[in-house]
């Protein structure tokens, strides 16, 4: 097994955007190709491309690459040779669609099958809440004020249980949103960048009690990408490569346990344990993290899953400022899903984007001397296996 | 890199079927789990699952596995533990969706990431021709008698060019269909099993001149699956494992060249050349083959791409009987896409199913002493990168 490095990352700003799905996907790739730390890469050297999307439809990745040339021309960039003709595989795994494409690229380079892979993801979402129905496609729905929308409702149940068992408060939940907005405020790629107080968050419209609007991730459109290569050739392309130490995927069991309170931890704990075991690292070694904060309660429970605080003590942990600016383990330093946005296929790559910049030392909310970064992404619908993915990165130079 | 074996295969009969998409997908898996040559495998030992579909929608693989338990109960099979909770990734690549899931399983076991993977695919298609429009989803359309339907029309153009350049005749094209029907006649899993004469084929309704109805693959519903493991543990599960010698994926370039006559060969030639190079085999070593005969002309051109006959001489080659029953290199011995059917996500696995049975020695149209098998699958829409996949199998005991 070979070591693998990330040498280029890119993303579009996340927002409700007018561009077509293919343009958005192409724009994320173009941003990665013109990553200021990337050099000497020609598209003709890219051996394969893996694309993540939930709702992009058949051959979405191929179509996006086919759009590269004209999209570059529209932007006044001289198109280079080899923009198309690359083998493309499309990966779908709901909210982890992008991460699964990224992970496949990591595995294949690790295995020696390819040396250089372009992995990317995109999503174009409408407004409203994503349906969490097991049979659902990429449907969005308007909030019905008489019932809880499915995805927020599921996490709201976990929040109520957490509050009951551990004394976690609404203020603790609001702190996740306040922290998220504080980080997003200085990230031009984030969808929502206004700073908020705890009162602002608590007084916002209630989506699913106790989760107010600002404790729920918005629907978003965006594209993002990463260029991975064998570590042995990474220096050819970048002076600031980032190494992937491990990638772990676990699934909830049994099928319906996404609904169970315990399942908010169980597969995360297994994924995190495996990542610690494989890297020989412990929680105190993590300098900066991205976790899947689709809803504020999820982020609190992830703190506990990964051993950053004791079980049930995540409320106190955020109250201590540990995951906040200047804290011991800054979490979701780009604003996370709650503020930066959550365009499913692009989400995992946007996490990679943020962590690569943190390890390079030029992130919008830079953590001093960041050396080890933790990436966590989860996804799935009710009644089917939820997927939980952890990757660990290290500054590679 | 470790050697990888196939120890279990399964498929539903292919047809227009009333079962739901999830039931069809689950049925393919159940058939593989109860493969008569498979023993000692418990689902709890399966470490990951890769699913191929074009039109299955988000988390189709997870949903299909979640359906396993109740589907087994409906069939009077005692459900076993561990049927769910397996990490699932979903692969989409049009007609190669299943092959890409199969190939990912092969790569990951080869790389040592997993030891045992369940890979499967399914599709539920309506009647009519698949749209070949670049923007198309999984749309079907009625034949419009005033224009050529897109996919048949594209291949019809290649057929006309082949006839003009090389003197290939309508009869040569018809021979592909006659051979296909001859093989399908004894395959209970095939969608269409009536034997036909050359006249029957030539007198059938014209879809896109010179391709008559019997020279075009039908739309089909079906599910199929394969269980792969590291060769070092294969004997635990089977006395008749089949080894994967290589897997190669190439893509057409530039983007629009699917429309060009030459592109009917180019990426195939590159994929085939690479497969020969990696295995040290030559065309004369292949005992039995499955190639992507979506339309009769495609099969003829594949003969030439892979060096089984000279360029332009495929008409003479099939006339000689070489790919037919009793010939030197029997091709599409299960009836191929034209007669067995083409449910996109399941197609690649059905090819694996046939070739595994050929190498085990118990296929419906058994080739004597088959030792080396060739699998070829291609897919894609117009204007985006077509994907071409070649895998080579060997009797593993």
From TrEMBL, chains A, B:
Pfam family, one: Thiolase_N
Segments forming domain Thiolase N-terminal: 4-194
Molecular function GO terms recorded: acyltransferase activity, transferring groups other than amino-acyl groups; lipid binding
Enzyme Commission number(s) from the entry: 2.3.1.176
Transport found in the keyword field: yes
Keyword annotations of the record: Isoprene biosynthesis, Lipid transport, Lipid-binding, Transferase, Transport
PROSITE patterns: THIOLASE_2
PANTHER family named among the record's database cross-references: ACETYL-COA C-ACETYLTRANSFERASE, NON-SPECIFIC LIPID-TRANSFER PROTEIN-LIKE 2
Name this polypeptide is given: propanoyl-CoA C-acyltransferase
